[in-house]
Amino acid sequence: MGLRRRPTSAAGITGAPDHHEVQEPRASDALPLPLSWTNGFFLGVFFLSTYYLYCRWRYKTQNSIPLHFLTFYELAGVIGLVASIIYLLGFFGIDFVQSFINKHEVYDEDQRFILDENRSIHCSLPPKPISRPKIDVDLPLEDEEIVNRVVSGEIASYSLESKLGDCFRAAKIRREAIQRQTGRSLEGLPLVGFDYDSILGQCCELPVGYVQIPVGVVGPLLLNGCEYSVPMATTEGCLVASTNRGCKAIYASGGADCVLLRDGMTRAPVVRFSTAKRAADLKVFLEDPLNFDTLSVIFNKSSRFARLQSVTCAIAGKNLYIRFCSSTGDAMGMNMISKCVQNVLDFLRNDFPDMDVIGISGNFCSDKKPAAINWIEGRGKSVVCESIISEDVVSKVLKTTVPALIELNTLKNLAGSAVAGSLGGFNAHAANIVSAIFIATGQDPAQNIESSHCITMVEGVNDGKDLHISVTMPCIEVGTIGGGTQLASQSACLNLLGVKGANQESPGSNSQLLARIIAGAVLAGELSLLSALSAGHLVKSHMKYNRSSRDVTKLGS
Catalytic residue at 236? Predict the structure, then answer.
């Protein structure tokens, strides 16, 4: 096919007869065989390779054979499939298109182009106009008009980001609409100075501003021979100062040691059968060691980091609760493991078609609520941290005595918690430290519930002269990638601890270190608070540091 400008005179524009024009090369001329033969060959390779690989995929999935182990013929099939796809996308149908166009003569009077039977080009086609995104003509350009439409309900508040394409402007308009709808002012809630694009679709919906929480730093915390400056975001007076005093006592006594006991996130779907016997059949299948490797292959295929560790089942009537435990690298891992669990459930339907999946989470996990199974089996990172505080440090830094600390811990943290029927709360205030570090480092604050499970033990050593204190925390649920950890402020706090992002050399090491640091900070907080209680300093300290001197009667005016 060729294009030339229509001559405006007898002489024409080209000034040469058609037979002197140079033949334009075609893409199909580069092929060693006629185009129809080549198309047919690669089309056959495409269908044969696709059919062969499909049969092999079905065979491997039915026999639980890992898909990444390829035989010579399977590798040849993959190469043939890729090669045929590349060829067909690049060359197939060239003659068809050319012959189809050559059948029709087209004349464009405006541009004065005609099609010629030869394949020379005497002028180029004008460039195609650039397609621009359509503007919503119904959307007003002024913020005031948009606010009015949001208030009236004509525009949904949640759709502002997508309609405007500007996250900050959307938050500003939504904020004004909320104030008009409620008649309440949001003055004092900051709007400017936050990257709203960073939270779109992942951290927070319908934003109207952000809350300021002061961040204090305690330390150095000497843990496993290394020093850490620990950020804590809190509005409770004395908390940072008290924890800092604990860090000082630990440092003066030679530091603390922390050991990671286990690392595994859990997810427990609930499935239902028509009878309890069928539920028991699946329980036996899942807990049979001979089936674990098969389940692991199905479970692990969705992630580079998720690795199935165990499967535990519990029956309630004809309902079965299946608790999967898996490593998750440096991520906290709830989304990761949920996807893996879904793969296993889909696989189980082959042998248990009568299985009815009620929910991907059946609270046997158990997430964001106190549960004995987390306290006993653990969830996330399970750690124990200890330190021996010398008698001199107890006296000079903590202002108390070793016997007083031992007695207080026994009667308060152990006996008192037992009298209250506490579940995982055999400590003074572990949740204080855990929450503060969680908020500072972008963790899920709701997971403070199980992450604060802690038992504090205090004993006399070296003939009762020195103090041995330890905290055992079976379910610290943290990550250093994903969620709020990617926000600028939280990322900076993680960087301060040296655990920002994923550890490329040893996946999971950063999140494990963060769990150890949290346990070390909890140890410091427990030591300091118990000392303040035993010495009778708690009320005095809070009256001095945790009470505002401002006239509160003027704050509401």
Answer: yes
- How do residues 366-418 score in pLDDT, each as one tens digit? 999 999 999 999 999 999 999 999 999 999 999 999 999 999 999 999 999 99
Q: Known catalytic residue: 450?
A: no
- From 60, 444, 459, 537, active-site residue: 444
Q: Please give the Cα distance from 40 to 408 (Å, whole number).
A: 87
Whether 109 sits among the annotated catalytic residues: the reply is no
Residue labelled with tokens 């050991």: 259
Catalytic residue among 95, 116, 166, 236: 236
Q: Distance between CA 278 and CA 273 in Å, rounded?
A: 6
pLDDT tens digits, residue range 166-179? 999 999 999 999 99
Of 206, 213, 248, give the one whose Cα is nearest residue 234. 213
- For 462, how many CA atoms within 13 A lie in the half-sphere containing its CB? 9
Which tokens in the block code for residue 51? 């059919």
Q: Is the pLDDT of residue 60 over 80?
A: no
Strands (E), 81-199: 107-108, 113-116
Task: At 110, give phi and psi (nearest 5°).
Answer: -65, -45
Q: Which residue is catalytic, options 122, 318, 368, 468?
A: 368
CA 526, CA 433: separation in Å to the nearest integer? 9
Cβ contacts of 93 within 8 Å, gap of 6 or more: 39
The three-class DSSP label of residue 262 is: strand
Q: Is 368 assigned a catalytic role?
A: yes
